[in-house]
Structures are given as C-alpha cells and as structure tokens.
C-alpha cells in the first residue's frame, strides 16, 4: 500500500481533475440522502506514454463493450458513475457505430423541401435507444467521466472511490477496465519525441503498484467490489482469480478468456466457481452476456446490503 501512496505522490493529477472531482462529489452527494445504490463502472483500456510530450504510447485491445453494455443493465436498480476511456464505447450510443450512421439515414422530399429521416426499419430500435438514454439523463442517473492514460485513470479511480465511501454498502465497484500492469515513471521518460536516428529502441517498463488492496482496505472499505481477471491461457484463469480474491479480500472476481469473453465468464468467490454462459438460443435472440452477469450481481449486491 505504501507503493500505491508513493505512486500518487510522484504522478500529477490529470488536467481537468478538479472539475471531474467536483462533478463526482455532486453526483454522489445526491445519493447520500436516498437509498439508490450507485455502481462505479470502469471501462476501456489505459495508455502508457513513452514520452513526456507524448507522441507514442502503449495501448491495449479493450474497447469498452463490457463496461458500456453492463451500464445499461445496471439501471434496473443502480445509478451509474461511468469512468471510461476517451472514445471507447458508451452506454446506448454503442448501438450506433459511426461506420453505420450514414446507412440508417435517408433523404426524403416533401412540400417543404428535403428532410433527413431515419430509415423505417431502423426507427423502432433508435427510438427505444433514445427514450432509454434520455430518461436516464433526465433523471440524473448517469455521470460519465473520461480518462486516457493509466495515470489519469488511477487518480480518478482513487478520487471516485474515496467519494463513494460515504455511500457505505450502497457503493458497488465494477472494475472492468483493462488497466496496464506496466508503465514508465515520469522521471525515467524522455521529455521529447524519441528519435529513430538514435537506433533501435529498448524499453524498460516498471510494475504499476497494485491498487486493489488500497481500494478495498482504505479508499472504500464498505463497498461491494467486483474485479475482472483477463487471461489468454484457460489453465491459469481460475487459479489467478482465486489468488486475487485471497490477496485483496474483496467480494468477487469475474474471470474471462480473451477469445471467449463475449460468450462465457466465470464468477469466483470464496465459496463458489460458477460459469455464466450464453446458450445457443441466447445467441439467436441477441442476448448479451452482460445482461446475465449484471442480473446476478444486482441480486448479490442486494443481499450484501442486507447482511
Ligand atoms: O472492453 P472489452 O469489452 O473489449 O473487454 C472487456 C475486458 C476483457 C477488458 C474485461 O472483461 C476485463 O477482463 N477487464 C480486466 C482485465 C484485467 O485487468 O485482467
């Protein structure tokens, strides 16, 4: 935990940090009087800059499907603080990929001239998305905050967790972001663009301190905390998830394998290892695995609050 504290001392807060923090404080303050639980969803990947004036950075595959889809299912019971990577998928708008935007529109002519309309076959789906999105926004049930780099993400995660601690057991953390395990500390990073004229590049990355321990024990100690574990080797998945649970003593680890993450995940707790899978008919009916994940978690959090 000392390493976590040192990390925050040595790294600067992101540019708009105070503004974001104020917004989060206001959002959570609204919930302190009521009994609506709030879920903090982290979503998308983090970048690791190689230069102070960043031209190049290391990134990862995550585009935020898990986080953005989950947010939509949490609204049955929870309000959502959505901490997401800049330009990654967002709840509701994820259904409208930019590449298809022009295909759902058509130009119609009437007495008043040309009108831009949504194609008939797309109208029902779009109306449904817009109604849901507007009602969540109107009722103030969603706050979206963006990050890009690993350092931005960790500062925002710590601030959000500390603020949410006032919610007690009504705080739920759903840590689905793919966060880099390695980084280059500022004092070991060149300020200016690395020059290829200097020859091949050798990088030395340091380990990012594990923040989950500080989060569970110090930042938001009464919360229900679910972390994710991604592996590519199926033989490692459950062992690594169990190790994480043992080490950090939070409530649940959701394990997933890169290639099958959209179809199956495994819930690992102190007492069970429970697979959640999409069946053939789920796939045919367009059911998303996040609907099953979140349904189970909402019930688990409800029971946790009653204990
Ligand atoms: O964002 P996405 O839907 O493309 O991927 C989701 C995921 C695989 C990043 C998530 O389910 C996950 O496992 N996050 C934690 C990764 C890790 O730090 O092990």
Overall 3D geometry? globular
Bound molecules: ligand PAZ
Structural Rg: 21 Å
CATH superfamily: CoaB-like
**How many helical stretches?**
10
Uncertain runs are: none
Instruction: Sketch the topology as an H/E string, one letter per element.
Output: HHEEEHEHEEHEHEEEHEHEEEHH
As a percent range, the share of strand residues is 15-25%
- What is the total number of structural domains? 1
**Order of strands across the main sheet:** 7-4-1-8-11-12-13-14
CATH architecture: 3-Layer(aba) Sandwich
Q: Biggest sheet, in brief?
A: 8 strands, mixed
Helix content: 25-40%
* End-to-end C-alpha gap: 28 Å
Structural class comes to alpha/beta
Give the CATH topology: Rossmann fold
Number of strands: 14
Mean pLDDT: 95
CATH level 1 name: Alpha Beta
Question: What distinguishing features does this structure have?
Answer:
22% strand, 307 residues, alpha/beta, eight-stranded mixed beta sheet, binds ligand PAZ, two-stranded antiparallel sheet, 10 helices, globular, 14 strands, Rossmann fold
Question: What does this protein look like?
Answer:
By secondary structure, the chain is of the alpha/beta class. It has a single domain (2-222), classed as CoaB-like (Rossmann fold). Helices cover 39% and strands 22% of the residues. The protein contains 10 helices and 14 strands. The chain has helices at residues 2-10, 17-33, 65-74, 98-101, 120-138, 150-164, 212-219, 234-248, 280-284, 289-306; strands at residues 38-43, 48-49, 57-58, 79-85, 105-110, 113-118, 142-147, 171-175, 182-183, 206-207, 224-231, 252-257, 264-268, 273-277. An 8-stranded mixed beta sheet has the order 7-4-1-8-11-12-13-14, with helices on both faces. Strands 2-3 form a two-stranded antiparallel sheet. The protein is globular and about 65 Å long. The model has no long low-confidence stretch (mean pLDDT 95). Residues 62-66, 176, 178-179, 228-230, 256, 261 line the site of ligand PAZ.
């Amino acid at each position: 935990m000392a390493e976590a504290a040192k990390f925050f001392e040595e790294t600067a807060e992101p540019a708009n940090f105070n503004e974001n923090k104020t917004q989060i404080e206001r959002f959570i303050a609204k919930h302190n009087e009521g009994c609506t639980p709030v879920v903090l969803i982290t979503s998308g990947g983090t970048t690791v800059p190689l230069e102070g004036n960043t031209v190049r950075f290391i990134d990862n595959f995550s585009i935020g499907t898990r986080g953005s889809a989950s947010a939509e299912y949490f609204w049955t019971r929870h309000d959502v603080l959505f901490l997401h990577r800049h330009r990654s998928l967002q709840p509701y708008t994820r259904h409208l990929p930019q590449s298809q935007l022009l295909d759902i529109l058509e130009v119609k002519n009437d007495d008043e001239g040309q009108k831009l309309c949504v194609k008939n076959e797309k109208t029902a789906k779009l109306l449904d998305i817009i109604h849901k999105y507007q009602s969540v926004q109107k009722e103030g049930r969603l706050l979206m905050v963006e990050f890009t780099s690993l350092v931005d993400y960790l500062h925002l995660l710590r601030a959000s967790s500390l603020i949410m601690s006032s919610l007690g057991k009504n705080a739920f953390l759903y840590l689905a972001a793919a966060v880099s395990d390695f980084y280059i500390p500022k004092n070991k990073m060149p300020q200016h663009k690395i020059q290829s004229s200097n020859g091949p590049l050798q990088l030395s990355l340091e380990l990012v301190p594990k923040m989950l321990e500080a989060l569970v024990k110090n930042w938001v100690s009464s919360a229900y905390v679910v972390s994710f574990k991604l592996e590519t080797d199926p033989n490692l998945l459950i062992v690594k998830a169990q190790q994480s649970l043992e080490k950090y003593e939070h409530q649940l680890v959701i394990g997933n394998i890169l290639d099958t993450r959209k179809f199956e995940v495994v819930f690992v707790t102190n007492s069970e290892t429970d697979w959640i899978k999409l069946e053939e008919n789920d796939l045919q009916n367009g059911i998303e695995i996040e609907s099953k994940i979140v349904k189970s978690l909402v019930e688990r959090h409800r029971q946790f609050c009653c204990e």
